[in-house]
Amino acid sequence: xxxxAIETIMKYYLYGSxxxxxxxxxxxxxxxxxxxxxxxxxIANHMSTAGRFAKPSQFDxxxxxxxxxxxxxxxxxxxxxxxxxxxxxxxxxxxxxMKTDHKLYAEGTDYLVVSQT
Length: 117
Prior knowledge:
Blueprint: H1 2-15, H2 43-47, H3 60-65, H4 82-88, E1 104-105, E2 112-113
Antiparallel strand pairs: 1-2
């Protein structure tokens, strides 16, 4: 269920674990600079819920990779890393971020509320 995935991510982001600590004012909750946490999600489940709104066309790197004007930049039967694709297309890392005009999303619903700001 998407909400449990969101709750899990939020707990790891805030507390560094999948549980809410009893003492939310504890200094132990302050992580050192550069701390990272890896979370594994079931992508099939995510894409059948909240992820269904993430379309490949919302990523600049995908749009540019399939742009007919860039078709000669890549060799057939060649494997490229994401960094190589970004370099070939002269894109920054921000091209891997989803671009959307949808400002509000109500979790658990089948609609998006679009804000014209």
